[in-house]
């Protein structure tokens, strides 16, 4: 059925085209929206990264480039087909229940990988409707990749701008490298493909049919490894933030495919450790959404404290990350107690699935920037400064209980009065969200409160909760849902995998993972005999577990490694079983944390035993030996055998020495030959270097490609036309976007490689420049095709001269034909018609032109526009108060109106422009050789437009000729004036 009939009225069924662009995306957006013709059956949403509080003119620009209505995507607005929507840079836009929803993007609320482009892509995919298309245009980074995965998983289509046409190819290349795309197209072809995607018979390309099984299987493989090795079960998390974190690590390690990265994390435990440090995602801050916390205090905490009247209160913050949310709750409770004068008896349980995060949260030590948004009085009451950081005071930390607990899979904290779980659910799949809400329901006492994040709009009221404040997402438990099912026992395969891992760690090189304060985070291998637990209070600090003689060197090595980002080592000694062993201690820094600081290091211990002989006491026979001590006769026998083996080895060594002397003589002879060849080679190198210097020193633009079209050598000047850098050697030339327009470039290279015939072409370059492009075959001395050499030379002056000469010939021919017509007595309409047709042929665009003749104080149409238009403008007054042609004839000067709808003078006549479909109007006076103004030339354009130098040159030439013909007309018909 036709595309226009495919639109359904229901909002959830409306086709959505989500377009994401970043750096360099303005040009691509202009081409895309400009290519949209007629009624489109979908709503388009254009998303571009801009900093918050930064004014955006994107909507205004889109209105100039397209005829479709362009609107701001406001809260609660329902999208309609045939419209383009643009969100504010101060908001994160999502689509929920068929309408737009927004949330603030300022400050720490903006999270890379799930906000802006990816957030909207995911919300569209959440409709579970195949009627969605994601378009990824020019941009840096990986924005849109994770969201494109969600679109594909929901059955939608992913279209990517061809990276060769993108100003910045990182965003489209990231999607292509992951195999998520359906179509890779230049921007000019995307509009047509969008219509095809919504036709009834559309079928996605066969090459992209099985993408999901590959990506999903590889992601499951990585998550299974994390679950087995680190104990994190991330299967309930949405794939978008997980994929984004994995892609971050892939870019750091320069791995392009998910399959290769899965192999990497299986081979390198340190890489797995670096990945696990970023999973799950920890994004939190003190008093995030301050208004929400104020409402939470007045509507929940203060009434709860008044009602309980000294009864102990229990609070739980699951997924506490680094502790800011839990400490925010503790600060509010202490402030309420201080202001009311009552002693509030409470305890806060803060848990997280990541042991490392729990350790950091329990220390309560934060960077000064993290606390910078807090009120100074609150900061001074609850924090003190140490080592340039802010630390929570002990009296508040003592109210907290930190523990490792996974709210998705572990049993909850029981009988709590309040749960604050803000901004965890946005990372989870819908089924997992329901499971977590049931867990939180079972943890709360009847009447207990649940405080969620502002953007977590989930149906908690259907899972035993009643709404207290929908705006601030506060709920109260009103119904118990019963006991949750216990997690199943681990499978036999999981147990075996755990045993294999334990065995590998016990037999691996002894090593420990530490933080910047030398606290142990993980042990690898068997560290017995190297680390010792001292008497007194147990400690997990490495400096207290190693030999005392190492402490100073170890502290310095850790400081140096974390400060310089380079590994360092030192030698030490340790006594084991009465024997001295030498130990090399190596400190290797891990990858930087998300804030750029180095705070993790791997300390490994390489041990070698003392190689000295064991002392044997004198006058000791076999008697009087201790239990287990060997008799002297056995030592003597071992010594005799060793001497015999030594003699045999000496004979073998002598024979080998003779063979070595003979081989050395042959080597000397070969060395002489090599010296002679080396002299010839140096001469050749000197000759090649001289030739290279000659080519590189001038403005010669040359690049050499091999048979696979990969760059092998180039001159520096070539960067003027192709953005080549030294690191691009070995890269395919088609990966680079040239600054010239040459549609036959790739095909001509293929032709030269195939036929060996030289290929020449004149190609255009930005800035109205022209280049002579030549492709030569490059053969070996035996005639074997090795590749091609491509040279460029600037031929702008010559080309302009040729074009000018060609134009002059055409103009002279047209003028001659018009003059001949006038001399033959043809009508003025016929004679000027020849000029008009030649002008339109020269312009080569969609402009319309017309000649007008002055009759007294008014103008009359001669030729060019339809009869209906002539009736509207005939008799137009020639006056300085007029517009367009009337003003041009009155003043004798051109009147250029780029956009008649923006010109105040045109207000009474905009109906005429709209009726005859033009926006730009240029008027040029026609003057005789005697200086009399006899008429005008007008040019009309469908879109707003400024004239170029060629436009003005055309107008001057043709108005001059028209002036002569009109003058002849006046002389032939005096009454006409």
Tell me what you see in this structure.
With 977 residues, the chain is α/β, with parallel strands linked by helices. It folds into 6 domains: 3-209, Methylesterase CheB, C-terminal domain (Rossmann fold), CATH 3.40.50; 216-277, no CATH class; 290-356 and 399-477, 3-Layer(aba) Sandwich (Rossmann fold); 507-609, Beta-Lactamase (2-Layer Sandwich); 698-794, PAS domain (Beta-Lactamase); 800-976, GAF domain (Beta-Lactamase). It is 39% helix and 22% strand. The protein contains 27 helices and 36 strands. The strands form 7 sheets. A 7-stranded parallel beta sheet has the order 3-4-2-1-7-8-9, with helices on both faces. The protein has a 7-stranded mixed beta sheet with strand order 15-11-10-16-17-19-18. Strand 35 and strand 36 (933-941) form a beta hairpin. Helix 1 crosses helix 6.
Overall form: flat
Subunit organisation of the chains:
single chain
SS-derived structural category: alpha/beta
Provide mean pLDDT, rounded: 78
What share of residues is helical? 25-40%
Which architecture of the largest domain per CATH? Answer: 3-Layer(aba) Sandwich
CATH topology of the largest domain: Rossmann fold
- Indicate the CATH class of the largest domain: Alpha Beta
Radius of gyration: 40 Å
Total beta strands: 36
| Biggest sheet features | 7 strands, parallel
GO molecular function: phosphorelay response regulator activity; protein-glutamate methylesterase activity; S-adenosylmethionine-dependent methyltransferase activity
EC number: 3.1.1.61
Keywords: Chemotaxis, Coiled coil, Hydrolase, Methyltransferase, Plasmid, Transferase
Protein name: MCP methyltransferase, CheR-type
């Amino acid at each position: 059925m036709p595309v226009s009939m495919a639109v359904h009225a229901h909002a959830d069924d409306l086709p959505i085209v989500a377009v994401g662009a970043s750096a360099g995306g303005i040009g691509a957006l202009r081409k895309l929206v400009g290519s949209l013709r007629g009624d489109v059956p979908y709503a388009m949403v254009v998303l571009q990264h801009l900093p918050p509080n930064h004014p955006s003119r994107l909507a205004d620009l889109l209105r100039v480039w397209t005829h479709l209505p362009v609107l701001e995507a406001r809260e609660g607005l329902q999208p309609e087909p045939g419209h383009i929507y643009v969100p504010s840079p101060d908001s994160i836009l999502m689509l929920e229940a068929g309408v737009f929803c927004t949330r603030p993007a300022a400050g720490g609320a903006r999270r890379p990988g799930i906000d802006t482009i990816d957030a909207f892509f995911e919300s569209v995919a959440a409709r579970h409707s195949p009627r969605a298309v994601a378009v990824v245009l020019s941009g840096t980074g990986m924005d849109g990749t994770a969201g494109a995965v969600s679109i594909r998983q929901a059955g939608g289509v992913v279209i990517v701008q061809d990276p060769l046409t993108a100003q910045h190819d990182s965003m489209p290349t990231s999607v292509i490298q992951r195999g998520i795309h359906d179509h890779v197209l230049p921007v000019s072809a995307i509009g047509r493909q969008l219509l095809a995607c919504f036709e009834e018979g559309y079928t996605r390309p066969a090459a992209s049919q099985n993408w999901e099984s590959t990506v999903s299987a590889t992601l499951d493989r990585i998550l299974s490894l994390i679950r087995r090795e680190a104990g994190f079960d991330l299967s309930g998390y949405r794939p978008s933030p997980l994929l984004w974190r994995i892609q971050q690590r892939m870019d750091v390690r320069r791995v392009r495919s998910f399959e290769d990265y899965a192999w990497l994390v299986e081979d390198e435990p340190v890489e797995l450790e670096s990945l696990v440090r970023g999973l799950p995602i920890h994004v939190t801050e003190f008093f995030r959404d301050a208004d929400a916390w104020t409402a939470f205090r007045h509507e929940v905490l203060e009434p709860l404290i008044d009602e309980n009247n000294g009864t102990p209160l229990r609070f739980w913050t699951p997924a506490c990350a680094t502790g800011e949310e839990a400490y925010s709750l503790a600060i509010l409770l202490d402030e309420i107690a201080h202001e009311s004068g009552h002693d509030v008896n409470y305890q806060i349980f803060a848990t997280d699935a990541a042991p490392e995060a729990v350790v950091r949260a329990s220390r309560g030590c934060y960077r000064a920037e993290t606390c910078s948004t807090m009120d100074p009085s609150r900061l001074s009451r609850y924090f003190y400064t140490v080592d340039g950081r802010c630390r929570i005071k002990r009296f508040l930390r003592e109210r907290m209980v930190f523990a490792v607990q996974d709210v998705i899979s572990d049993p909850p904290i029981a009988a709590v009065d309040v749960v604050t779980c803000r901004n965890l659910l946005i990372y989870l799949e819908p089924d997992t969200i329901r499971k977590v809400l049931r867990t939180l329901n079972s943890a709360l006492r009847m009447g207990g409160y649940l405080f969620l994040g502002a953007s977590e709009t989930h149906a908690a009221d259907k899972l035993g909760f009643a709404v207290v404040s929908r705006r601030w997402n506060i709920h109260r438990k009103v119904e118990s849902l019963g006991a949750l099912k216990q997690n199943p026992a681990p499978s036999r395969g999981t147990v075996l995998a755990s045993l294999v891992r334990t065995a590998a760690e016990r037999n691996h090189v002894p090593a420990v993972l530490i933080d910047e304060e030398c606290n142990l985070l993980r042990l690898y291998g068997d560290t017995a005999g190297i680390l010792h637990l001292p008497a007194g209070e147990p400690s997990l600090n490495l400096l207290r577990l190693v030999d005392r003689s190492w402490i100073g060197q170890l502290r310095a090595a850790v400081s140096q490694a974390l400060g310089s980002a380079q590994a360092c080592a030192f030698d030490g000694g340790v006594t084991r079983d009465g024997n001295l062993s030498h130990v090399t201690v190596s400190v290797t820094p891990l990858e930087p944390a998300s804030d750029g600081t180095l705070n993790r290091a791997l300390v490994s211990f390489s041990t070698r035993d003392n190689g000295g002989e064991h002392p044997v006491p004198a006058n000791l026979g076999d008697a009087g030996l201790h239990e287990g001590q060997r008799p002297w006769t056995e030592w003597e026998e071992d010594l005799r055998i060793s001497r015999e083996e030594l003699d045999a080895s000496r004979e073998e060594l002598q024979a080998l020495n003779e063979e070595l002397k003979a081989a050395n003589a042959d080597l000397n002879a070969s060395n002489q030959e090599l010296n002679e060849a080396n002299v010839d080679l140096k001469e050749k190198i000197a000759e090649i270097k001289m030739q290279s210097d000659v080519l590189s020193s001038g403005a010669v633009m040359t690049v050499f490609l091999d048979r696979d079209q990969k760059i092998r050598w180039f001159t520096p000047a070539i960067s003027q036309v192709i953005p080549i850098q030294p690191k691009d050697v070995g890269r395919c030339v088609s990966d680079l976007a040239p600054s010239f327009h040459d549609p036959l470039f790739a095909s001509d290279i293929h032709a030269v490689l195939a036929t060996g015939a030289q290929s020449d072409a004149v190609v255009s370059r930005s800035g109205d420049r022209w280049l002579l492009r030549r492709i030569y075959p490059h053969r070996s001395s035996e005639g074997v095709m090795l590749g091609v050499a491509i040279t460029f030379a600037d031929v702008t002056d010559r080309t302009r001269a040729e074009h000018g000469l060609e134009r002059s010939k055409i103009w002279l021919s047209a003028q001659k034909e018009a003059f001949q017509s006038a001399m033959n007595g043809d009508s003025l309409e016929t004679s000027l018609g020849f000029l008009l047709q030649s002008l339109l042929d020269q312009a080569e665009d969609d402009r319309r032109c017309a000649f007008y003749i002055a009759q007294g104080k008014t103008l009359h149409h001669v030729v060019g526009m339809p009869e209906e238009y002539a009736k509207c403008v005939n008799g137009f007054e020639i006056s300085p108060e007029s517009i367009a042609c009337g003003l041009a004839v009155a003043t004798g000067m051109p009147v250029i109106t780029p956009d008649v709808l923006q010109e105040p003078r045109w207000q009474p006549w905009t109906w005429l422009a709209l009726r005859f479909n033009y926006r730009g109007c240029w008027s040029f006076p026609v003057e005789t050789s005697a200086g009399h103004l006899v008429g005008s030339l007008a040019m009309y354009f469908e879109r707003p437009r400024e004239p170029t130098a060629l436009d003005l040159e055309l107008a001057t030439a043709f108005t001059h000729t028209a002036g002569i013909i009109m003058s002849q007309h006046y002389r032939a018909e005096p009454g006409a004036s």
